[in-house]
Write the structure tokens for this entry.
Amino acid sequence: MQVEQRRLRDDLVIRGAVREDAHAIARILKEGADDGLVSRVDEVDPGAVSRQIEFARAMSNSLYVVAAVPVPEDDEVIGLLLLEGQPLMRLHDVARLTMAVAREHRNKGIGRAMMRYALEVADRSGQIRKIELLTRANNATAVHLYSSLGFAEEGRLRARLRLDDGSYLDDVCMARFKPEPSAG
Ligand SMILES: CC(C)(COP(=O)(O)OP(=O)(O)OC[C@H]1O[C@@H](n2cnc3c(N)ncnc32)[C@H](O)[C@@H]1OP(=O)(O)O)[C@@H](O)C(=O)NCCC(=O)NCCS
């Protein structure tokens, strides 16, 4: 789906991702590769990011947003959030969440701002009933953020992620359902 831009502060906008953002997004994903994301640095491909952006714009059950600092003539992308809707019709109202914030901008509320925006758009769209994600069991920041926004743990995938030292880490499955409209 395509979404409108929202200016949250003088130095922060949230907007839909466009293909031209692919390199900036890939840089952030590479930073996140060691800090919580599953891909390795050498597995992040700007071409694949660009295709994901196009796909998300075209699909009614998908959303790709970025957080950016406005600068004259352009803006600087500092965060990304993807809600990737499932193509199968029986799963069409289920989306998988991925997000990352550039290292120097973390812990300043950017992730929460992107999440609030994405949840609001997703809920309003009526196309996404359930949002699922996987996060590393030791990603305390992510687990805290998701829990505070209504995500609950649904289970664990044991010893799933192989680390560089050869040890394995659990992935935590978390999910959030679209809130029921309040009565009255
Ligand atoms: C996870 C991530 C996207 C969060 O973005 P962010 O902009 O740093 O998040 P925010 O600043 O909005 O919120 C972070 C919250 O975690 C809290 N936090 C920070 N460190 C923490 C820790 N060690 N333990 C628990 N909570 C922690 C902060 O206090 C804040 O909570 P609050 O708003 O209640 O005070 C970002 O850290 C990131 O890109 N990490 C690397 C990639 C990644 O892990 N992506 C998620 C994969 S599932």
